[in-house]
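Teaching assistant's notes for section 4

Start the section by putting this record on the projector. Ask students to predict, before seeing the second block, whether 1-phosphofructokinase family hexose kinase will look compact or extended. Collect guesses on the board.
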Amino acid sequence: MIVTVTPNPSIDRTLALGAPLTRGAVHRVTSAISEPGGKGVNVARALMLAGLDVIAVLPASDDDPMLTALRTAGVSFECVPVSGVVRTNLAITESDGTTTKLNEPGAHLDAAALDALTQTVLSHAENASWVVLSGSLPPGVPDAWYADVVARLASAPCQVAVDTSERPLDALAAGFGTAAPDVIKPNAEELAGLVGASPEELERAAAQGDPGPVVAAANRLIERGAKTVLVTLGAAGAILVDPSGSWMAAPPPIAPRSTVGAGDSSLAGYVRAAVGGAEPPRRLQMAVAYGSAAAALPGSALPAPSQIDLNAVRAYAITPSSPVSTRP
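Reveal the predicted structure now:
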């Protein structure tokens, strides 16, 4: 069993444009897609398509359209009842794959709902191989909630992955010394923020084939207690760093259609490979194959195994070749 946790789920609505987005202009939409979303839900959808036993845990009212969408998609879930309405996130995609996102804050979770969500996660973790905690936190949830849940899962038999950003990610990293998840999945901007580096420097180096700055930044998190750092780098691929080494993988050439859910798909690929007993390079290879396949699909569609071209991705061992500079 794999458990995904989405504290701030969403209905993801994607509008496709045939021309570049222009602020203040009137645009004709070429297609519109609505799908159940939120980062953990996306991970669950991808793993479900791969035939894995997965359940999505999320807060929503019993009659929320989100639950209807999950049933339609065939995703198993456990809902923690709340009074608010699941948010709708809007993504606008252009013909070259450029994606503009407009995300609502989400429904407020009071103390009782948050406690129920926490207890549901802990209960499912007792029978899980992985627990994946993903996404932003809705209003009412303390920034340190992910860090607190990871600490409480330390004695559980499962492995834990976390994919979040901004203040919840900062709070998680602050607790690495006492309780770190088995995997964190920052992008270049999020990694740079954690170590005081320049995201532009990390992205530029990776795009030029120099993984050194990213590896150096990730190793700083390893030194602080992180176990494994999976850094997604968009078109440059991804880098995986753990105490035993570091690896890089680049995606095959694709025609990008939408980046919505691509990072979630990468994490799903990593977990799928890990559940199968794969070594780190193979996990990274699967992560990049999944991420690139998702970017080639419309809206927030997630790839099925038949759409994964694992042989088109090569993962190779690397060592830092360039230092990472920090901001003053």
